[in-house]
Amino acid sequence: MSKILVFAEQRDGKLKKVAFENLSLGKKLSTDLGAELVAVLIGNNISGLGEQLGKYGALKVIACQNDALDLYQPEGYAKILADTVTAEDASIVIMGATLMGKDLAPRVAARLDAALATDCISVEVSEGDLKIVRPIYAGKVRATIRLKSDKKLLTVRPNVYPAEENPESTEVIEVAADPCEIKTKVTEVMAGSKDKLDVTEADIIVSGGRGLKDPDNFHLIANLADKLGAAQGASRAAVDAGWRLYEEQVGQTGKTVSPSLYIAVGISGAIQHLAGMSSSKYIVAINKDPEAPIFKIADYGIVGDLFEVVPKMIEML
Amino acid sequence: MTDKNGHPSFFKSLFSGFFLEELVFPYPHMDKEEEENLNLIRDTIRKFCESYVDSPKFDREEKFPEDVINGMKELGLFGIVIPEEYGGFGLSTTAYVKILEEVAGFDGSMALIIGAHQSIGLKGLLLYGTEEQKQKYLPKLATGEMLAAYGLTEPGAGSDAAGIKTRAVRDEKKGVYVLNGNKMWITNGGIADFFTIFAKEEIDIPGEGKKDKISAFIVTREMGVQSGKKEEKMGIRATSTAELILENVEVPIENLLGERGKGFKVAMEILNTGRVGLAGGNIGGSKTALKYILNHVKERHQFGRPLISFEIIREKVAQIALRIFVAESMVYLTTSLIDRENIDFSLETAMCKVYSTDTLLINTNDCLQMAGGIGYSREYPYEQWVRDARINPIFEGTNEIMRIFTALSGIQERGEYLKKIGKALSDPIKGFGLLTDYAMHYMKNRLTKERIPDVHPTLAKAKADFEEWAKNLHITAERILVRYGKHIIKKQIIQYRIADAAIDLFGMIASISRVDDCIRIKGEENCHKMITLCNTFCGQAWRRVRRNLLMIDKNDDDQLLKITEFITEDEEYRV
Amino acid sequence: MNIAVCIKQVPDTETKVRVSGDKKWIEEGEINFILNPYDELAVEEGLKIAEAHSGEVTVLSLGPDRITSAIRSALAMGANKAIHIKTDKNPLDPMATAEALAQVLREGNYDLILLGKQAIDDDHQQIGPILSEKLGIPAANVVTKLEVSADKITAERQIEGGFEKIECALPAIVTTQRGLNEPRYASLKGIMAAKKIQIEEKIVTVPDDKIEILEINYPPEKPPGKIVGEGADAVPELIRLLKEEAKVIS
Ligand SMILES: Cc1cc2nc3c(=O)[nH]c(=O)nc-3n(C[C@H](O)[C@H](O)[C@H](O)COP(=O)(O)OP(=O)(O)OC[C@H]3O[C@@H](n4cnc5c(N)ncnc54)[C@H](O)[C@@H]3O)c2cc1C
Ligand SMILES: Cc1cc2nc3c(=O)[nH]c(=O)nc-3n(C[C@H](O)[C@H](O)[C@H](O)COP(=O)(O)OP(=O)(O)OC[C@H]3O[C@@H](n4cnc5c(N)ncnc54)[C@H](O)[C@@H]3O)c2cc1C
Predict the structure, then answer these.
(1) Which ipTM score applies to this complex?
(2) Ligand nearest A286 Cα, by number?
(3) Number of residue pairs across A and B with CB atoms under 8 Å?
(4) Which domains does chain B have, with CATH numbers?
(5) For B359-383, what is each residue's pLDDT tens digit?
(6) pTM for the full model?
């Protein structure tokens, strides 16, 4: 029976959500192809993680352990994963399109001389082969592709496939792995600096308007932005009132932005404001006035009091 | 058909009924290598302007920041047209004008600073400078270490530039000219160190005695040029426009530019080429305004629909696009004539200037109108664009003077020919050669359908209209010449109509040639936008030409002039 | 220091991408091509390092004739040499591209190889790590901070919510991310000087693509906006939609 191998990404002994998502995808594919689903863990102090993977459908977990692998070490991981793929003779390898996955997958592909599809948003079985969709040109178009090598490697975009539980009685095999020579040494992991992100560079923006009523209430915007790793923006009304600095103003006479997510809180959606943000990929509006023009261009709207809605969002994220 | 140097002129010829095909067909292309360079340069300019050029701020503060000027120097924007052997980049006029277009799309003042430096400030040195003069000044001008300005206008002499009063007195002993006088409205006047100055000197002309003649001089700041305060202006506020005060400024004799007493020609030649830069810049301004307003009319809703869904708005947008297209077609045909050398392009540059500057004003004004109330707000760029646009029909030769120049040069051309024919006929033996020459030429070039090259069938109607009305233009020119003789000089309203007809015809043929070329290279299916633009414009244009030419015979000019008479007499509106 | 920068020509970010008639690729006709913005960072970094360590920067690019304009823009920024890698066929698989680049890079004896973290057209983000394996030298990818000494580099590479600090010996590969530097503008002088540099051409045979494009499509039309609900009660549904439908948060 052929095997599907899912690389279960962990950092600090904590599994990433994408590992479960990919197992759920792997499960689906293994059913369609009649393949066996195997998870691979790499790192140090990873015992105990194997069982969690079983919950999501892995029949076998190979836990590759080595003292040198407290942190992600590119060559070490690549060698171990490639060796495991070869040893298991897996035909499909799924990784997360995370910063680790994006670094690791091409290395493994190179070692195996296999084809790799990165940042996939859809993987299906069609006529016994994988039909893969990946966005290109910053998502302006999508390519449906096929991998022509015996071994097929994928990195799948996080949040695309939901993590679904499929408990299996899992066999966890612990292996003392040999990471070989590590040339690219990761010496330290540092938490991100709190440097303020500029609205024009941000992928997510949370903007507040006159609906915030008072400059002090902008901590709501700040907290929500923090939770999302977002930049903070403002309407001109908020800037003119002296609540926020001009550099945050979004709109025709402020900055023009096109993040993937723009959350407008207490902003009516005047044309001048829209001119600066209407090209955002997704727009969320929170406003108590159902007639507010912002709802016309919002993908998702909540009609309600921002002082209730926003704290709830902060709590849930 | 040719100027005094024997250089052919497309439009002067057209006025005489000759179509010099090789000057307008095929539509010119940039050299591939230069085009690649140009793309890189535009890219750089875009990045530079997006980071450093805050046009509304410069306008509000009425200042073009020095560090931005320094950045422009580093980029090399002051040495575009200066040959490489003098430290410049030796780009063609076409490339230069396209650069001005790009810059003007970001900020009118910035384009003007570059233009006043290269289009006119140092142009005289390029055209008439001696090797020593070029060696001495061009390298510094190329890097921007020295900025240049052009000083012709004076308090008492604007359009009538020949009336300048600034004096140059030659002191052979000291080897200098001593200059005294004031120059007005000089762009870059407060920041330049290099001035092309025009002044009158007394010259002893054999057989004529002593006469005041204009000479041109290279004057530098340290010779003692002083600047008055920066003028407060309606638009292009960030530019330094200032009076120049010349008080006993001693200019070495070797700084005479061109021949003694030939300064007026220098002044005019400079403007003849310089104008096309202005025309190109204005295209950039129109493009930016259009891009901006499109965004607004798509977003702004009234009566439950976006503004762009209303026909009147749609018509305005289309007209702006048409005007941009035609201005482009004219300007880049003309720059190629300049680059080809030994062609008389003085009428074409004048027509480009009139068309491009008049239409920038209409375009920016229409954009302001479509923006509604916010168009009038100082927080939006529309009103600044209108203010910035307003200067263009005034300087580098007012558009009235440009029209007069176009019409009179054209009519005169026709006159010259008739004179020659007349001579030939009255003295058939001596004139035989001339006559046969003329006849041969006429047979070959006469405006007949065979003579204008075949164009793609989709443009056939436009071409036929051009032929018909170009023929009418030269017939009309001949007719009014016969009718008014030398008094045509006074018939300015007629001149205006002739000029407007000529400009429309130029727009037609430039567009036809451009689109014909596009079809030949890319195929009809890939030129649909251009074909529509060209045919629409030609349709509008020939009707205007017809009206203008018909109105030469049928008009209310006399009544109009009568009104002026009593209104001026009353010194106010009193009826 | 001998520095190589691998660059790619890509469509301008403002380009409206149109799918070609056979749905196998995109219409290239009206596209304005530029130097990949991430590669611009790589060129800038290369120039800075070359200035500090008296080095030389060679840019390498693989692709059809039109890419010379991207090569020219890198030269105009200040790169010293350029190699245009021509191939028998145009690879769409980064593995094949990397193989072709590796063949040329091996000949060059470079101390440092820089490239953008990804090309903004096909968005594969594979070349840097593949080269690391093919050339057998270390690679720090998605780097926002870089220090180079005579024989090693220290880099910070972006990860979710933070950075990994990386050390490795030269020769090494670095892929560049926004934040690393501000790319300089090419001056007219640079642009004109670049014209005089002869672009070396190397012909390389590339392995067959292992990725096959079946079809290119537009993403499904954006559904009309919807009111998720009223008040705080609607928040869970909103968050679900953002995660699962829009997939813009995790
Ligand atoms: C020349 C000019 C330039 C301009 N440029 C810009 C620009 O660049 N950017 C810009 O943003 N604007 C600009 N404007 C201003 C623009 O017209 C609007 O005035 C401005 O955007 C309004 O800001 P706002 O939406 O925050 O305020 P408002 O329009 O007052 O909207 C506040 C919104 O908050 C909602 N709200 C109130 N309380 C609550 C609550 N408790 N919970 C939920 N919702 C609540 C209200 O229903 C309302 O919809 C410009 C205007 C002009 C004339
Ligand atoms: C911002 C600015 C920058 C300038 N920069 C420079 C510069 O760098 N160097 C320089 O030398 N000059 C410069 N000028 C001067 C400019 O070229 C003159 O203003 C222009 O030539 C018009 O001259 P004038 O102002 O004396 O107007 P006038 O000549 O008095 O003209 C007034 C009006 O009368 C019309 N008119 C004049 N004569 C006739 C006629 N014969 N028939 C019909 N109508 C006529 C004109 O068309 C105009 O409408 C600048 C001017 C400005 C405002």
Answers:
(1) 0.90
(2) 1
(3) 13
(4) 10-25+266-397 (1.20.140.10), 148-260 (2.40.110.10), 401-566 (1.20.140.10)
(5) 999 999 999 999 999 999 998 899 9
(6) 0.83
